[in-house]
Amino acid sequence: MRSTFLLGVILFCAGCGPSMSPVSGRVTLDKKPLVNALVSFQPESDAMNPGPGSQGRTDANGEYSLQMLTKDVKGAIVGKHKISITAYEGDDGTAPSSGSDMAFRKALVPRKYNAESTLYYEVPAGGTTSANFDLES
Description:
It contains 1 helix and 11 strands; from the N terminus they run H-E-E-E-E-E-E-E-E-E-E-E. The protein is mainly beta. The longest helix has 13 residues.
């Protein structure tokens, strides 16, 4: 009887983990779509390891959808996230960021939205299609 109970607990907890929800939205810079920007969500919590982050890249309309960094899973962990948004002039995503043929590009997004980010977003349990960020130069 005891081993049956323990097996049940183990099987139940095997499915345990952070709750994920789909997240998408739009990013603008000075009221214009921010094209080919990397949008990163990093969960914040009191825990030592709040879980993996998620990221997505904006399209020609500034729209993005998040995908978890460590798994092939769409969305982000439910809860509060620190947001980082980066984009570079002329970046089409093909130039390497290291190596002999790397390209140096001018940052389009002020540091207050990435390296010194002041952006936060609360991912709801049901997900969202309106995780929008209206940035200013």
